[in-house]
Write a structure and sequence with these properties.
single chain; 213 residues; alpha/beta; 8-stranded parallel β-barrel; 8 strands; 18% strand; globular; binds ligand 3DU
Length: 213
């Protein structure tokens, strides 16, 4: 991954025109746009193609099915122009490897979720996160997702995944601090609502960028 702004925009809006407007305003301030179920279900897969013509897209479908279905989910979104996909590690080695293989065929990146950022992740995911991070590294993913809401968990996951990229959601709306996440070892911050829900998204992005510089 090319590190420049260290910001990934989580584009969780349902209106396609608004999505495109946000990307137009923010594309020079971010490294990737993360598009997930909300926008793809509302606007169709074509929205990936459209946004990918403006900025690199990471498709956050948190893919977590049997290997064959994982391939069938990965291929169309990669064909639509996604530069990266996000898969869950908990579905196991064969399922995650199917996503890695699909991404490699397109020269795209694959990220595996280790521990999520919301409070509920502490119930079941946190106790498994180290094993999930090890599996992700063994499957040769390009990076992992780790929680900006719990920087100490980023530090732990960094000790397992070595120099693979760590991308961290949970900044802003979920309470995480951009600087603390980066200091703990995150390479990229994933930021959604605090930018997209603001009346001035560019100003919020600029404030985060100056905080982390
Ligand atoms: O809380 P925000 O609005 O900044 O958005 C965070 C984004 O990251 C959102 O798209 C969510 O689905 C995603 N995400 C997490 O919040 C937590 C994870 O562990 C993984 C992805």
């Amino acid at each position: 991954m090319i590190r420049n702004s260290r910001l990934i925009l989580a584009l969780d809006v349902l209106d396609k025109e608004r999505a495109i407007d946000l990307v137009s305003v923010l594309k020079d301030r971010i490294d990737y746009v993360k598009v997930g179920y909300p926008l793809i279900l509302a606007a169709g897969l074509e929205v990936v193609e459209e946004i990918a013509s403006m900025a690199p897209v990471i498709a956050d479908l948190k893919i977590a099915d049997i290997p064959n279905t994982n391939t069938l989910i990965s291929e169309p979104v990669l064909a639509a122009g996604a530069s990266g996909i996000i898969a869950h590690a908990f579905a196991g080695r064969d399922s995650l490897s199917a996503c890695v293989d699909a991404a490699r065929e397109r020269g795209a990146l694959v990220f595996a979720v280790t521990e999520m950022s919301h409070p509920g992740a502490v119930e079941f995911m946190a106790p498994l996160a180290e094993g999930l991070a090890r599996l992700a590294a063994e499957c040769r993913v390009d990076g992992v997702v780790a929680p900006a809401t719990r920087p100490e968990r980023i530090r732990l996951i960094r000790s397992i995944v070595g120099d693979r990229a760590i991308i961290s959601p949970g900044v802003g709306a979920q309470g995480g601090s951009p600087r603390a996440a980066l200091e703990a070892g995150a390479d990229y911050l994933i930021v959604g609502r605090s930018i997209t829900d603001s009346p001035n998204p560019a100003a919020v992005a600029d404030a985060i960028l100056s905080e982390i510089r």
